[in-house]
Each structure stands twice: as C-alpha cells, then as structure tokens.
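User: I'm new to structure prediction. If I give you an amino acid sequence, what do you actually give back? Let's try with this one:
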Amino acid sequence: MRRIVLCTVLVFSLVLLFQNFAQGGQFFGALEPITKKGEFSVGVGYFYSADNFRQENAINQVDVSLDSFRFALPISIPKFNVKAKQNQYFIQGSYGFIDGGEVYLRGGFADIKFDRVFVKEDFNLSDFDDDPKIFGTLGVRLRNDLNSIFSVGMFLQGTVYSTYEDTESVNFPGLRIKEKVEVKNAPWEINLGVGLQAKLYADNTTKVILYGGPMVYWEQFDVKESAEVDIDPAIYPVGFTFLTAEASTSYKEKNNLGGFLGLRLSLAKQFHIEVEAQKKSRISVGGALTYSF
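Assistant: Good question. You get back a string of structure tokens that encode the predicted 3D arrangement of the chain. For your 293 residues, that looks like this:
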C-alpha cells in the first residue's frame, strides 16, 4: 500500500510538471531599412513576448533509479498545450548592404516564466521563473517602393536562446521531493514575414511609417523533467531510501501563422523610434530606439 502511495505521488507530480512550457517571440521592426547602402545603425530595445505551444511527443516512459537500481517505468502522460512569458532586452547593430536592404545582428538578455509548473504540498502549482540569459538574433530585411507612399518588403530572422532551469522543493509526510525543470539544447526560432508599409507623413526632417503584414514562424525547444525523492524508511519501509525519476519531451509552435503591425517615427533623419505588436497564438508588444550614421 505504501509503495502505491509513493508511486502515485511521484507520477502525479510528473504529469503536472510537464503541462506548462513554452518559449517566446522576437521584435521585427519596419520593413524599410533604417540604414542606407554603406551605412550603419545601432539601437536598443525591449520586447514582451507571449505565445502558446504544443507538445510534439507524448511521454511513454519515465527513467527511474531506486538507490543504484535503474529501470524504465512505462507510463502514459498525455500531450499538453503550453504557454510562456518572456522579457527581452537587446542591442542591435545594422548595416545597409544594398539600396533598400540591410542585415542586422541583435544580442541581449531574456528571462522566461512558465505559469503553473511546480507541484506544491496542497497540489496547487507554482511558476517556473528563471533569470535573464543571453540570446542572439541574425536577420535581413528588404524593401521595394511601389510609389512615393507605399512599399512592400520582407524580413527573415533567426534566434538562438540560452538554456533555462529552475528547481523547487516540496515536502509530503515521509517524502522530500526536489523538482527540476530544464529547457535544453539551445532553443531556437525562425520568423519570415512579408508586408506593406505606408508613409503617413514625411518632410525634410521627420518621417512616420505604418507597417504590417502576415508572417510564418517555427520554434522548438526540449524540456527535461526530473524529481529526486528522499524517503523516510520509518514511514515508508519500501526497501530503498532514495528515488529519482526523469523524462524528456520537445515542444513546437502551436501554429505557424501570425501577423505584425507597427509604427516608426524618424527624427532628424538619424533617430528612429519604433513600437510594434504581434499576434501569434497570443499578443506580444515591444519597441526600439535606433541611431543611424
């Protein structure tokens, strides 16, 4: 009976742990390059990202260690749709390699928060929350003028994130469980967008651009869950005092289609302020301040 109670607590914990995970999105910017051919720009920005993901593979087994004895425990944990929030702080440098085209390199720090991940004593869930880690983005954007007001353009960018992890300890009668969650193997995302932009106002020193359009995106990351259980033999005389269990799975974007809408204000031909909203599975917003030279 006590073995059944022990296994029930462990399995229930693993099921709850695997149900809430995701990564984030990235700031795009206007379709029109900030830099002209042969020029550079540098800027700083912030982006709040939120999105939903789907689990790619169901979990069919958990690797268990009882002291020094290891075995695979067959188990069926269903797939879950998941969500996350992320704050990204970045610096970006751009270079105009052709008229109407630029490449850009972005680097910064991004935290991550998953809602309702860790199992507590009352079987409610607490959040996964890790500190900002380094990420990097490489992209290119191209623009073609239709007339003096309207232009079409596209962008392509890829991002690689750091790994994240968090731990939580929980106590049940006779059991102390240390839960650990790891987002592993350099989570990545790719965004491809096309759109239309319009000059709402332009004079010798000031220009206002409205831009937007559809996009497709791909994102993937791996998650490893583990639990270490210290067992009080006076309460659970099951023949072992330490148990570990771990399982892994991967997540991808819930869907591949989204959209973006933004506004750029250029002052004195060198200072540029941008704000942008995106809609994937959820809404994300951000902005940037850039100086071109």
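You can read the tokens as a compact description of the fold. Here is one thing that stands out. The helical segments are 2-17.
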